[in-house]
Amino acid sequence: MGPISILPKYQKLSTWKGDSAKMTHLQAGLSPETIEKARLELNENPDVLHQDIQQVRDMIITRPDIGFLRTDDAFILRFLRARKFHQADAFRLLAQYFQYRQLNLDMFKNFKADDPGIKRALIDGFPGVLENRDHYGRKILLLFAANWDQSRNSFTDILRAILLSLEVLIEDPELQINGFILIIDWSNFSFKQASKLTPSILKLAIEGLQDSFPARFGGVHFVNQPWYIHALYTLIKPFLKDKTRKRIFLHGNNLNSLHQLIHPEFLPSEFGGTLPPYDMGTWARTLLGPDYNDENDYTHTSYNAMHVKHTSSNLERECSPKPMKRSQSVVEAGTLKHEEKGENDNTQPLLALD
Q1: Residues contacting residue 334 through CB under 8 Å, at least 6 positions apart
Q2: What is the average per-residue pLDDT within 162-177?
Q3: Angle between the 155-169 and 199-206 helix axes, to the nearest 10 degrees?
Q4: Taking all residues of the chain, what is their mean pLDDT, rounded to a whole number?
Q5: For a Cys staple, 298 with which of 33, 119, 192, 228, CB 3.0–4.6 Å?
Q6: Helix 199-206 with 227-236: angle, nearest 10 deg
């Protein structure tokens, strides 16, 4: 069985040749600050953008075992940005992206927001996505772990909803450069719930997010984690790259350490921020559009990822917020607790998005 298409069809192996100056259209819409950031941090050079993209494209012939279902310039560019324009590393990530989808075909069947499993996960707030970005231009994703109703959502469907959300968000070139932040609130997450997080499904998530997706994660922040989450963390550490481990921060219930890295004005009140409490239906309404319904199965309009930004703002005002379990975090004096002892003062890799 061959690979399935989860994205719009594009040309197989484009070999368009032209003046490299024309390639600057791929930077259209980027702010001057972001263009400069891409130059300084990612080694992005508009004068050789086409050559960089074509070098990655030329490597595709070396992996005939993988179906590269999309190879247009804009698509390859996001992999180059994710690997700081190291062509070999960018191609390796591109290959892993499609290989992961070939090896997990069931996950990517009906890979859109109208899939019943994905829709339920989205409505239950997996993931939450804050409207505004932080002071570094990064998009903030939220996971309220205790809201996982295991009789309603499988872990795989939650992972599918997260991956679909990232597919939508990564279409934004600004986020390809600035990246993402993930905050996981473990308040009220029971031992029984944690027992369902087996090594195999955690490995599946790590492979999908760390090894096979062209996103720059600037930090993963644990809040209110109980002792058994620390134990789970020891299970997944062997699957984490050293760079990933250095970006995992364990804050406990001390939000001051979180605020050292993400300013309160960008956070909802659950995390000691100045924004209103997060409405977990916000992102689901964005993806599902006018057919959003948190009570009945979604069966009508399928989601088109390329047009998400045209969602009606009036609809969001009409839909009432859905209550959710609240964080037990408190703001208290303390220092940042990093997952690695002895690295408490080493926050530069997080902030610099190395």
Answers
A1: 254, 256, 257
A2: 97
A3: 10
A4: 82
A5: 119
A6: 70
Position 295 scores a pLDDT of 54
Third-level CATH fold of 112-292? Phosphatidylinositol Transfer Protein Sec14p (3.40.525)
Per domain, the residue ranges of the chain are 28-103, 112-292
pLDDT at 336: 47
**Token pair for 211:** 């090894």
CB atoms closer than 10 angstroms to residue 84:
16
Strands 128-129 and 139-144: antiparallel
* Alpha-carbon gap, residue 302 to 289, rounded angstroms: 9
What average pLDDT does the segment 289-300 reach?
A: 57
CA distance linking residue 287 with residue 103, whole number of Å: 26
**Residue 91, pLDDT above cutoff 50:** yes
Query: In this structure, are residues 143 and 184 in contact, taking their beta carbons and an 8 Å threshold?
Result: yes
Residue of 106, 104, 148, 101 lying closest to 124 (CA atoms): 148
Q: Give 142-206 as a 3 state SS string.
A: EEEHHHCCCCCCCHHHHHHHHHHHHHHHCCCHHHHHHCEEEEEECCCCCHHHHCCCCHHHHHHHH
Residue pLDDT, tens place only, 132-142: 999 999 999 99
Query: Which residue blocks in the chain are alpha helix, DSSP H?
Result: 32-42, 49-58, 73-82, 87-103, 116-123, 155-169, 173-178, 191-194, 199-206, 227-236, 242-245, 255-259, 282-288, 313-318, 348-352
In the predicted structure, residue 40 carries a pLDDT above the cut 90: yes
pLDDT in tens, 242-286: 999 999 999 999 899 999 999 999 999 999 999 999 998 999 999
* Options 1.10.8.20, 3.40.50.11810, 3.40.50.2000, 1.10.10.10; CATH of 28-103: 1.10.8.20
- The token duo for 262 is 């993400």
More confident: 325 or 160: 160
